[in-house]
Specification:
The complex is a heterotrimer of chains A (about 120), B (about 130) and C (about 150). With about 130 residues, chain B is α/β, with parallel strands linked by helices. Chain B contains five helices and four strands, in the order αβαββαβαα. Chain B has a single domain, classed as GMP Synthetase, Chain A, domain 3, CATH 3.30.300. In chain B, about 50% of the residues lie in helices and about 20% in strands. The longest helix of chain B has 16 residues. About 5% of the residues of chain B have low confidence. Classes of the chains: A mainly alpha (about 120), B alpha/beta (about 130), C mainly alpha (about 150). The interface between A and B is medium-sized, with 14 and 12 residues. Chain A: It holds the Pfam family SpoVAC_SpoVAEB. Chain A: This is Stage V sporulation protein AE. Chain A: Keywords: Membrane, Transmembrane, Transmembrane helix.
Chain lengths: ~120, ~130, ~150
């Protein structure tokens, strides 16, 4: 159990370091950095490399935004396997929804509860 | 900062303990399962339950072998299927299932109770993300 | 003033971004967030009928919930000042972008303000995630159909 915590710490930290390098060395804005990471996550899943990483690192691989691209691609591929090409379109949100739906719901709830003062990004 | 380093060090040290725990319940089929599983270096420990129709093996895979988790699971389940041709074999390294299997062993459940929880575990493992 | 001189002065004036320090901070903050995520995953596996795979969904939702609290109280801003990418890359950063945008634009009304601006910052992530997922899946499906690779 402790070894799981350590691997998720190291792997999650390393993915964040990649993000920091994109920001500092390649001078990307945060939005560009996150988009790049999402795209790379989805490409990694195309090669079938991201799922083994999740097996290895658990939350270290599922919490970073790269997993978002991974699960979008994974849903699309799973549906494509069943229904052919049209599945690529229909399956995309089969798996992922939890991150987006949670963000929407808590975004609205947060806007109800909290006032706009020092909170801005 | 210094404290954090000590805590990290402690974590690393405790993570390296290599205990192998093997539990097979009920014990009558134990030798065959043992034979198969002991062939794999990447399997650190296992607990398994069998009833009339099912063989359920929860394995603990070594950290660095987890990249190949699926392959290892498939290989072992193929081997076990050869040994138990009339039973359904489920080999998994999932933590939840390992805990559930250990619960069965700990409570040393009776036949029908065990069948019920095995059914539950199997439906859990079928759920995909 | 010549361009070269100007560049030199600008170079001297702008503070050198200590790359290594930033990387270390991102590593620590990002690592800690992921470790918390792993703890939450363990919690869901232990007490709810979730397997390792399915526990990722409630974990993500919980992390976004935590991000809501931290964003609303202004704490997340402080964390991101320390962590840089370490706080932006985990899903909490995504949640923070959505939630802070919706809090910020609340005065403009619920439909135009919150609804319209919620994904102002985070929308690109969804857009490019979906687009790249589409193309990756499309290419792979076609390659499988052609028999070049297998699933």
């Amino acid at each position: 159990m402790i070894s799981s915590l350590i691997t998720s710490f190291v792997v999650g930290g390393l993915i964040c370091v990649v993000g920091q390098i994109l920001m500092d060395v390649f001078k990307l804005t945060p939005a560009h950095t996150l988009s790049t990471l999402v795209v790379s996550g989805s490409i990694l899943d195309g090669f079938g490399l991201y799922e083994p990483l999740i097996d290895f690192a658990g939350a270290g691989a599922t919490i970073p935004i790269t997993s978002f691209g991974n699960s979008l691609t994974h849903g699309a591929l799973a549906e494509a396997e069943k229904h052919g090409l049209i599945g690529v379109l229909t399956g995309m949100f089969e798996v992922t929804s939890s991150g987006i739906s949670a963000a929407i719901i808590f975004g609205v709830i947060g806007a109800f509860i909290f006032q706009n003062s020092k909170t801005t990004y | 900062m210094k404290n954090a380093i000590y805590i990290l060090l402690l974590c690393f040290l405790t993570a390296c303990s290599n205990e192998v725990n093997e539990a097979i319940y009920p014990e009558n089929d134990s030798s065959e399962i043992k034979q198969v599983l002991n062939n794999y270096d990447s399997v650190k420990g296992y607990s398994s339950v069998t009833d009339k129709n099912d063989v359920l093996v929860a394995i603990d895979i070594r950290r660095m072998s987890r990249f190949n988790k699926e392959k290892i699971e498939k290989k072992i389940s193929k081997k076990l299927e050869e040994k138990f041709p009339d039973k359904e074999v489920l080999v998994t390294s999932d933590l939840k299932i390992r805990w559930e299997v250990e619960k069965i062993i700990e409570q040393s459940m009776q036949e029908d109770e065990m069948t019920k929880s095995i059914k539950k575990i199997k439906s859990l493992s079928k759920e995909e993300t | 003033m010549e361009q070269k001189q100007f560049d030199k002065i600008v170079d001297q004036q702008t503070p050198k971004t200590p790359l290594f320090v930033n990387m270390l901070k991102a590593f620590l903050v990002g690592g800690i967030i992921c470790t918390i995520g792993q703890l939450i995953t363990f919690f869901y596996i232990r007490f709810f009928p979730f397997t390792e795979r399915t526990a990722a969904n409630p974990t993500v939702a919980t992390m976004v919930f935590i991000a809501m609290i931290l964003t609303g109280t202004g704490l997340y801003k402080k964390i991101s000042q320390i962590g840089g990418a370490g706080s932006a890359v985990p899903v909490t950063g995504f949640g923070n972008a959505v939630i802070s945008a919706s809090i910020e634009h609340k005065p403009e009304g619920y439909v135009l303000g919150i609804g319209g601006n919620m994904f102002k910052l985070a929308g690109s992530v969804i857009v490019f995630g979906v687009v790249s997922a589409f193309f990756v899946a499309l290419i792979k499906t076609i390659l499988v159909k052609l028999g070049v690779v297998s699933w």
